[in-house]
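INFO batch 0412 | record 1 of 1 | parsing
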Amino acid sequence: MRLLRSLTLYMALAVGANAALADKAALEALREGDMKKLNIHSAPQPVSDTPFELADGAGTATLADWRGKWVVLNFWATWCAPCRKEMPHLSALQAEFGGNEFEVLTLASGPNSPTGIKKFLDEIGVDNLPRHQDPRQALSRDMGVLGLPITVILNPEGQEIARLTGDADWNSKSAQAIIAHLIGDGVK
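INFO prediction complete | emitting tokens
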């Protein structure tokens, strides 16, 4: 009986591992251009529960507050030139896919004033992304963010499944195909 239980558990783990590898392969096949920099993990990774500040002094939140939807989490700063280039692409991705199943979550890391964040987004014509902050970089540190921009994809269970270092065209056909695949196929 014990051997049968162990064999059943082993088979379940093997099937789950094979499904995760198949999902990774499917996502990797969609990567082109800037999305080639997207590192897709072979297994979901836990994320930090460190709180960050919501826009306009509305309190604090944690990444767990976004469980139930796919999230493209972008760490950025007002002084970051690549962030200025990338932010309109993230805005377009939010406009295309944002809703109950998906959200672009932007988090200004470090000493960015609320006024400076608003000015930055106004200057580049972005009005559909949140102005949340991680002023002491506590969440950024916990998430291993060593430079900016860094973008991570979180699954509906609140786990990191992929990470991209540097700026990217998140409005490219490749990025859209990746997000459509995640949302449409319910990949975990």
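INFO post-check: Residues 64 and 112 are 23 Å apart (CA to CA).
INFO record closed
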